[in-house]
Specification:
The chain is mainly α. The protein has 3 domains: 74 residues; 119 residues, Orthogonal Bundle (hpI Integrase, Chain A), CATH 1.10.443.10; 66 residues, no CATH class. Helix content is 55%, strand content 3%. It is built from 13 helices and 3 strands, in the order αααααααβββαααααα. The chain has a 3-stranded antiparallel β-sheet, with no helix packed on it. A hairpin with a 2-residue loop joins strand 1 and strand 2. Helix 10 packs antiparallel against helix 11. The radius of gyration is 23 Å and the shape is globular. The N and C termini lie far apart (78 Å). The mean pLDDT is 88.
């Protein structure tokens, strides 16, 4: 019963244009938990029990609110479904996590760890090393990388079709990135698969988002980037933040050049508005040094 309700609920949201990937994963987990206990309808006590098993307060609250929205939708059809109060686990406030800005050595270590994945004689190690390298070198979203097709690789760069805002864009590639991608393509084209995905695993198909995240977490812990499960640490998405920050560091730091650069960066990242790009820019020693130099130059100008 709940499984069928979930299918209808997910189909409705996806028909409206939502990816609904993370929400679907959470709700599927909850429905499995509830059905194991014999529930045919959503019960508040079951929701709270399941939500409380998350490792952190923000994750517990996210679980609660995700199921609450599901319960409210079902309750409109059948009053036997119970919807928990939004503040049942406390009233948290949304806080953006401070991203981890990767150092070049950390990205290299992550790619090297990926290259050691098993089976060693399969394309899997090369696929993950290439995936993490592409994310670091282009700042693309992981969903965009996993949706790439062979025909999206052109002489001018990568064509990103499956975007968050349904707007395709072209990503020119640095020559070193292009060489690494060509090496991957040489191995990829030897596979006897009818699937046209660019990045494939041992199944001959693109790995799922959840699988990639699980592999990333395991590799990040193995090289000391992250602590034990439940502890905060660098995320895959932080590679996108890192790309934005490092690109700004390399920009000539006069006001007009920076303004043009941020607009170009926003387009490259696929943001709908340039203001969205500002969330990706964070202070680093290099940027703070540039700001200090600009401030001193301004002060000297006034002093003279």
């Amino acid at each position: 019963m709940l499984s069928q309700d979930l299918t209808r609920y997910v189909d409705l949201h996806r028909s409206l244009g939502f990816r609904f990937r993370i929400q679907h994963s959470l709700l599927r987990n909850f429905v499995t938990f509830a059905e194991v206990h014999g529930d045919e309808f959503i019960r508040v006590d079951r929701v709270l029990d399941w939500a409380a098993r998350a490792p952190s307060p923000p994750q517990r609250r996210n679980r609660l609110l995700t199921v609450r929205r599901f319960a409210l939708a079902l309750q409109a059809e059948d009053a036997r479904h119970e919807a928990p109060a939004a503040g049942a686990l406390g009233h948290g406030r949304f806080e953006r996590r401070t991203p981890h800005i990767y150092r070049p050595g950390e990205v290299a270590a992550l790619m090297q760890a990926a290259a050691q994945l098993q089976p060693a004689d399969s394309i899997r190690p090369l696929t993950y090393a290439t995936l993490f390298g592409l994310l670091a070198a282009t700042g693309m979203r992981i969903s965009e990388a996993l949706a790439l097709r062979l025909e999206d690789v052109t002489t001018d760069g990568l064509i990103i079709r499956q975007t968050k805002f349904q707007k395709s864009r072209l990503l020119p590639l640095h020559e070193t990135t292009r060489r690494a991608l060509d090496e991957y393509l040489s191995a990829r084209m030897q596979l006897g698969t009818f699937d046209g995905a660019l990045l494939v695993s041992v199944t001959g198909k693109a790995p799922s988002y959840n699988t990639v995240v699980a592999v990333f977490l395991r590799l990040a812990r193995s090289i000391g980037l992250r602590g034990k499960p439940g502890r905060p640490g660098p995320r895959i998405h932080d590679l996108r933040h890192t790309f934005a920050v490092r690109s700004l560091e390399q920009c000539r730091h006069d006001r007009e050049t920076v303004a043009r650069h941020v607009v170009a960066l926003s387009t490259y990242l696929g943001h709908a508005h340039v203001t969205d790009t500002y969330w990706y820019l964070h202070a680093t020693p290099v940027l703070m040094g540039q700001i200090a130099e600009a401030g001193e130059a301004l002060h000297r100008g006034y002093a003279s």
